[in-house]
Structures are given as C-alpha cells and as structure tokens.
Specification:
With 78 residues, this protein is an all-beta fold. Helix content is 0%, strand content 40%. The strands form 2 sheets. Strands 3-4-5-6 form a 4-stranded antiparallel sheet, with no helix packed on it. A two-stranded antiparallel ribbon has the order 1-2.
Length: 78
C-alpha cells in the first residue's frame, strides 16, 4: 500500500511511503468517515485487515478477520 501526502498549497503529492499489507493480492480498500481506519480486503486469503491511520498517515495493523471467499469490495458504514 502506498501512502502519499498532499501539499495544501500546490496539490502536489509527496513521494510514496510503502507499507507491507497482509496477503498476496490486496483487492479493495476503504477509509472510515473519521479518517482514522483503513479497511483492506485480501482477495486470495479471504481476509479483511483493519489498520489504524495516525496523524502522519502511518498505518498499523490492528486486526485481521476472515470474510469469506474472494472479497471484492469494501464498504464502511458508520
């Protein structure tokens, strides 16, 4: 997963910071409406990873749950 910062004055992106995420085939992701959690599905493993997003944009894996065969989409309802 690549994380970028956006310069508020120019709109330019910073060089990416790369994070290893669970699974060989990350498929879809969604960020919570509060902006503090990233949900990422792993297609081949059938899992959903829940990552905390800190104030710098850094990701920390909090939990991985099994969600069934080949998850294709992630929708966060809050």
């Amino acid at each position: 997963m690549a994380v970028f910062a956006v310069d508020p004055e120019t709109g330019f992106l910073s060089p990416p910071k790369w994070y290893n995420v669970q699974g060989a085939h990350p498929r879809a992701f969604n960020i919570s409406s509060t902006g503090d959690t990233l949900y990422l599905s792993s297609m081949e493993e059938g899992t959903l990873g829940c990552y905390s997003i800190d104030e710098t944009g850094a990701l920390t894996l909090d939990q991985t749950v099994s969600v069934g065969e080949r998850p294709m989409w992630v929708l966060s309802l809050e």
